[in-house]
């Protein structure tokens, strides 16, 4: 399920702040004070407009030096403990947001020890894209060969993703320090219109076991592969909204879940042997593939339960984001000792607080990946949201006067970076909310929550529509 979430939001300090700065989510997450987030004086007062004017850092696209300096300042402000920075997009399809992501990752790799980027695309598929990035001998030199196999959601067709992977591939070919850049997807094999078959993940785990113990892998393959049936049954689009169309609670699916648990138990029981025969990293990858297979089967089972529309959507959205968080935690652990990770996805996936989506008459509320990462990684996780003023191709008009977007984009731009603080949101809840999009359902205006959801916000005057994306209505 791809288009949903809650918007990001901003800060109004229209009254004395007192000592409230040290309460709330920032204290809970261990965010450090810095020159960008100084401890305000107990009696200080401010207004939203003055705050933005004072704190905003312009990011002119034609000045690489200023851009790099602003990124350096941001990284310093986030603190040395950060291993994972999330950068959220305000909507799917913003060309300038994707270009900003590419430039941000380039600076992070050049100056701050980042070795990997993870995007909102299928985790199992992404290893084919990473083979391209890593210049594997078996891979063609053409990106066209991986734009479908290496991505989900059609994201491989986006020009900015092609540019990112081709830049990473060139950089890896020129590196002499051995610290190659890696590309990951951290999304699950799920989507708003269908859910993936467990076949690919099961194959990855059995292939790993076969490389060490072919007889054991062949025995398991003969037992579990017949339970898969046809991929089309798992991927039936009707199962998303109609439980009777899902095979997730069928006898074969139940047997496959038991077989998956047995497979995981064997991998765990034989850990010393298997890790020694391959290596610790490859073993952990296989264990994670098996765990993700378990999650995917649970997702299919949830679709098969006779729940209300609201219940089934909330459960599936929550399962998807929980899996995303597990994927990101695994990626961070895998990169630890090599470098740090930049994650890129919709704001709603990466934010720390509850996500919301008004789906027709249903208000869906669930815990996104960022909320899980807050607990899993603590101060090792920092997240930056994005906002925008206008986007004619996406059906987003100029923000109405007095809205947060109008105030943010009043600062020098066309792109500006503004840090947030851990203050209560009550002071901005009465501000008017801007209108949404008439074309792009993945866009959500700002609201009062993101003050605690994001460490900072990048606000764009305008964005166009991404090259290579499907046409908007």
Walkthrough of the structure:
The protein has helices at 25-29, 48-55, 64-78, 95-111, 126-133, 159-174, 199-212, 214-228, 231-234, 251-269, 271-277, 280-304, 309-335, 347-350, 369-377, 404-408, 450-453; strands at 57-58, 84-89, 114-122, 182-187, 340-346, 355-359, 362-366, 381-390, 415-419, 456-462. The strands form two sheets. Strands 1-9-10-8-2-5-3-4 form an eight-stranded mixed beta sheet, with helices on both faces. A two-stranded antiparallel sheet has the order 6-7. α7 packs antiparallel against α8. Mean pLDDT is 86; it is low at 1-45. β6 and β7 (362-366) form a beta hairpin. The protein is globular, with a radius of gyration of 23 Å. The chain has 17 helices and ten strands. It starts with 24 loop residues before the first helix and ends in an 11-residue tail after the last strand. It has 473 residues and is α/β, with parallel strands linked by helices.
Q: Structural class of the helices, strands and pairings?
A: alpha/beta
pLDDT below 50 for ≥5 consecutive residues: which ranges?
Answer: 1-45
Q: Strands of the largest sheet, in order across it?
A: 1-9-10-8-2-5-3-4
Strand content: 5-15%
Return Rg in Å: 23 Å
Molecular shape: globular
Count of separate DSSP helical elements: 17
Q: What is the arithmetic mean of pLDDT?
A: 86
* Sequence of secondary-structure elements: HHEHEHEHHEHHHHHHHEHEEHEHEHE
- In helices, the fraction of residues equals 40-55%
Secondary-structure map with pairings?
Blueprint: H1 25-29, H2 48-55, E1 57-58, H3 64-78, E2 84-89, H4 95-111, E3 114-122, H5 126-133, H6 159-174, E4 182-187, H7 199-212, H8 214-228, H9 231-234, H10 251-269, H11 271-277, H12 280-304, H13 309-335, E5 340-346, H14 347-350, E6 355-359, E7 362-366, H15 369-377, E8 381-390, H16 404-408, E9 415-419, H17 450-453, E10 456-462
Parallel strand pairs: 2-5, 2-8, 3-4, 3-5, 8-10
Antiparallel strand pairs: 1-9, 6-7, 9-10
Helix pairs in contact: 4-6, 5-6, 7-8, 7-12, 8-10, 10-12, 11-12, 12-13, 13-15
